[in-house]
Amino acid sequence: MPLDPLPSRDELDDLYHAYAECLDDDELERWPDFFTEECLYQIIPRDNWERGLPLALMRCESRGMLEDRVEALRRASVYAPRALRHLLSGIRAKGVEDDALCVQASYAVLQTLAGEETKVFNAGRYLDRVVRDGGRLRFRQKLCVFDSVLVPGSLIVPL
After folding, report:
1. Which of 66, 83, 117, 159 could form a disulfide with 32 if both were Cys (CB 3.0 to 4.6 A apart)?
2. Over the stretch 93-152, which tens digit does the pLDDT of each residue have?
3. What's the rounded Cα separation, in Å, for the pair 108 and 122?
4. Would you say 62 and 41 are in contact if contact means Cβ atoms under 8 Å apart?
């Protein structure tokens, strides 16, 4: 999956904002399509990332695992309804490695539960590998490295 030509700034912005919109609009069935068949998706505390510790709160190693995660959320999980809003900034290409564009972006996810105030749910940075696949940009890797040392108790949906 060579990255030829390199994506434009607009293409990267479109990819990241479409990704956030998919999650914010609770269109989780579309979420796996943002990834290549063989991929890595992880949600990792910053402390673990900085220490090189492998423990992740969520880890999926293929698009099939992402699809299973969505299926589990829709059919097996019980949780309070919520509205999410992703705020993205600093989407920057950092170089090319193994035919993938290394991209970093900052994110904050706001969460609103019914009858409650909106609160910052999670904040951190995405450390991604982006490739062209099937005529479009997709994530080969998406690492969500969150800043807090506290584990979010209701982390059930992707970031």
Report:
1. 66
2. 999 998 999 999 999 999 998 889 999 999 999 999 999 998 899 999 999 999 987 766
3. 6
4. no
